[in-house]
């Protein structure tokens, strides 16, 4: 499996079977790597309804005929925007897909979808655990929660560290203590000043826990 970080909370997972894009915030994303060309996308996972996560879901689902997986409310909203292939889930639910088993996990955050002056209810925010060639946890936008202990032992944890809207570095290190993954990749930091974080300190503190921390710059990939 190849894991590519595309800035903010956007990850591309290329497996032997299918390609998965998580939280496709591309248009307007200052950290999205310039001139990066997406491969064919089979599935799009959306953790919650905020614009910097739902991003280009409508356009990409049409371009690639991709299936969008998210909570029920976001899937219903996307259908109203013309998205043809959706698979609604909710917190705690798990389903087997072509790429493996997918489980939706809790996240402490919001999920409102802003359209003009209106805020549309976006259901519960969440994260995802993909159980396939490797087990990968994408936390979405979240604060620290004891529920993370239930994810103990996943291979890779993709954790926000930017503070303000999500966990800061200290809380994200505590999350690593709870999860005890084999590897951590930080995300959701330094896109804007309000989520500026010291990623080097995060890496140092994580590795004190004997957990491998890999800092990917936007556009960089890791073979796992």
Kindly report how far apart the N and C termini lie: 5 Å
Structurally, the number of domains stands at 1
The CATH homology group name:
Ribonuclease Z/Hydroxyacylglutathione hydrolase-like
| Uncertain regions spanning at least 5 consecutive residues | none
Q: State Rg.
A: 16 Å
H-E order = EEEEHHEHEEEEEEEEHEHEE
Please state the average pLDDT score: 97
Give the neighbour order of strands across the main sheet. 6-5-4-3-2-1-16
Shape descriptor: globular
Total helices: the number is: 5
**The CATH topology:** Metallo-beta-lactamase, Chain A
CATH class reads: Alpha Beta
The major sheet is characterized as: 7 strands, mixed
Into which percent range does the helicity of residues fall?
Answer: 10-25%
Structural commentary:
Pfam families: Lactamase_B_2. Keywords: Hydrolase. Belongs to the UPF0173 family. There is one protein chain. By secondary structure, the protein is of the alpha/beta class. It has a single domain, classed as 4-Layer Sandwich (Metallo-beta-lactamase, Chain A). The strands form 3 sheets. It has a 7-stranded mixed β-sheet with strand order 6-5-4-3-2-1-16, with helices on one face. β14, α5 and β15 form a beta-alpha-beta unit. The mean pLDDT is 97.
